[in-house]
Write a structure and sequence with these properties.
Blueprint (H helix, E strand, L loop, with lengths): L8 H10 L16 H41 L15 H8 L3 H32 L5 H13 L2 H12 L5 H9 L9 H25 L3 H9 L4 H30 L2 H7 L7 H10 L6 H27 L22 H28 L15 H7 L4 H32 L6 H8 L6 H14 L9 H24 L3 H9 L4 H30 L4 H4 L7 H11 L2 H28 L5
């Protein structure tokens, strides 16, 4: 995704001079400044950038480092108390590692992670390959699957699948039991892997569709001309070229699968399947007196495992340049004709689309036909669930809290990361990359672990944040800052520094160049960052489940409470409304982003 304006040398100078940096009507020839004034401005700019760098470094460090440090400290505190103690102990880690259930938790996490990761890679690669390299029918359906996956909250997807294939109460299971005498259950390890595969495949698709399109067909053609069969070409040429990209994506998916919370919580817990994330949640929510030391030990172990995985990911991506196929030389992409198979793939795409829309449809149907799937068929049509939802306790405060948290989090995170990205990309301050490194730390921390870290921190420190919506804002800013940086930093890298120089040579001060030239060019990335953070902060459950109280309900915890209270009809009504709103807002955001300058 790139912005449209020309960023070459000639275009840069023209663009900078066109945004007259002097009052209207002043001739351009009067704009150039003297060498002395230029040196003075550069010195003042260096001082300002240094001050901003130190300020942002301090703010980022205070936001992210203390919660993690206090979590590690708590894991070493005997008894798991929250009082400050100088006595250190490894009892928390010993209790975790020697507990009867630790091996089962480790095994369940490993099986789920590997199964969901391999499934996601296989499905995502297939989607990307057929869209990028073939003439299949129904490519639009694949993109719709990707859109639905990101638009519908993960918790609603998990609950929707339970409404379809839940043990003893699923819609489809009801018909299967009456018609064929057997049922399927989604609340199992295989069900978890299936649902998580569908959830992560769109991310794999987006990460690989570009590399698949970038394969130079002349390399494959040369092998075929030399007499190689298609199967040999794919095995010995195409696969090795794609291996670094696929391996890098696989490692990233493994990290995200280990961090998964909604699917293990809703589909795994009823089946007795435990993962690290659900165990951390259970340590704090199942007991009247939470065992903070053991929960913190679980969190620390999980972070260390993910850090090792992330280091390997960086190693893989550093060596990927050896497999470059798109250079400054002539490049030719190709489309593989499938013949009649293009219609077969179109049918498969239609089935895949139904799988992605099925959970939301299940919620919509259940919300108006509460007895669907029972012996009576669809049952009686009713809006009673929506009427009960309107009078549900704390409904409107929860929606208001989520909106405020989403807007404030998205705004602060985007502004913080925009300033940080500007300093990292545009300044020459020594050590500026440390700012990016600090803001990127949370990318390897699961939401439940980060929520635990913030819970421990603001129960310890004498700051009245716990029990308010501001603990959500702080935790979400820390959690989503790495993703906001990934939106904004590449956008600034695409803009030539010649634009800055031309603007300053024309007499513009630093803040004027930033406001009149650079910001208009990065508006699409700013909008994308804001929307990404807003949507995820509005519906996040992994962090919210750890830090919410009765005084701070949010949309995600309301859905969780409805599920635990067993009010499936009201839950379906709420989930249906949220799905519709998310799809409409997501579609509107996509249209608005296209109008603002995004290009494929």
């Amino acid at each position: 995704m790139t912005a449209g304006p020309d960023t070459g040398r000639g275009g840069a100078a023209t663009a900078a001079r066109e945004v007259a940096l002097r009052p209207p009507g002043q001739p351009l020839e009067e704009l150039p400044i003297s060498e002395e004034e230029g040196n003075a401005r550069r010195g003042a700019r260096w001082v300002r950038e240094r001050w901003w760098f130190l300020t942002l470094l301090f703010v980022s460090g205070v936001l992210i480092v203390p919660p993690l440090a206090l979590m590690v400290w708590t894991s070493l505190t005997p008894g798991g108390g929250l009082g400050i103690s100088s006595e250190m102990s490894l009892d928390g880690y010993r209790d975790v590692l020697t507990s009867e259930g630790f091996r089962d938790i480790l095994a369940d996490t490993a099986v789920f992670t590997l199964g969901a990761s391999i499934g996601s890679i296989f499905l995502g690669c297939a989607m990307a390959w057929f869209v990028a390299r073939t003439d299949m029918v129904g490519k639009t359906l694949i993109y719709l699957c990707v859109f639905l996956s990101f638009a519908i909250p993960g918790m609603i997807e998990a609950i929707g699948w339970i409404l379809l294939f839940g043990e003893g109460a699923g819609i489809i299971n009801g018909f299967l039991d009456r018609g064929l005498g057997f049922t399927l259950t989604i609340q199992s390890m295989s069900g978890m892997i299936f649902v998580q595969t569908l959830s992560w495949a769109p991310m794999v698709f987006l990460l690989l569709v570009g590399p698949f399109k970038a394969i130079d067909a002349s390399i494959e053609d040369s092998a075929r001309v030399s007499g190689a069969r298609k199967s040999y070409v794919y095995r010995r040429i195409t696969a090795p070229l794609l291996a670094p990209s696929i391996l890098a994506v696989l490692i990233l998916v493994i990290i995200r699968a280990v961090q998964a919370f909604e699917v293990p919580l809703f589909l795994g817990t009823p089946a007795g399947v435990k993962t690290f994330t659900t165990e951390i949640y259970g340590k704090l929510r199942r007991s009247y007196i939470p065992d903070y030391a053991e929960a913190a030990a679980y969190g620390t172990i999980l972070v260390l495992l993910l850090l090792a995985t992330l280091m390997y990911y960086h190693h893989v991506t550093r060596t990927a340049s050896r497999y470059t196929t798109v250079t400054g030389k002539a490049f030719k992409a190709s489309t593989i004709p499938l013949g009649r198979g293009r219609w077969v793939m179109g049918g498969i795409a239609a089935i895949l689309f139904l799988l992605y829309v099925a959970p939301a449809l299940a919620m919509a149907v259940t919300s108006v036909w509460p007895n669907v799937g029972a012996a009576s068929g669809l049952g009686d049509f009713t809006f009673r669930n929506y009427e009960e939802l309107a009078g549900h306790r704390s409904l409107w405060p929860g929606i208001r809290n989520s909106l405020v948290i989403g807007v404030v989090t998205a705004t602060i995170a985007t502004l913080l990361c925009l300033a940080a990205a500007f300093l990292v990309v545009r300044s020459a301050i020594p050590g500026r990359q440390s700012l990016d490194h600090i803001l990127s730390i949370p990318i390897v921390i699961p939401g439940t672990v980060l929520g635990l870290a913030f819970l421990i921190t603001y129960l310890r420190v004498p700051i009245a944040v716990y029990g308010t919506i501001w603990i959500f804002v702080l935790a979400y800013i820390a959690h989503y800052a790495p993703y906001a940086m990934r939106y904004l930093q590449p956008s600034l890298l695409q803009i030539s520094k010649d634009i800055d120089d031309a603007g300053r040579i024309s007499g513009g001060k630093g803040h004027v160049v930033l406001r009149r030239i650079l910001l208009p060019l990065v508006v699409p990335a700013v909008i994308g960052s804001w929307l990404y953070v807003f949507f995820h902060a509005f519906r996040d459950i992994s962090i919210a489940a750890m830090i919410y109280t009765a005084q701070t309900p949010v949309v995600a915890t309301q859905l969780l409470d409805m599920w635990q209270d067993g009010v499936a009809g009201v839950l379906s009504a709420y989930g249906s409304l949220l799905s519709i709103v998310s799809i409409l807002i997501g579609g509107g955001a996509f249209y608005f982003a296209k109008r603002m300058g995004f290009k494929e």
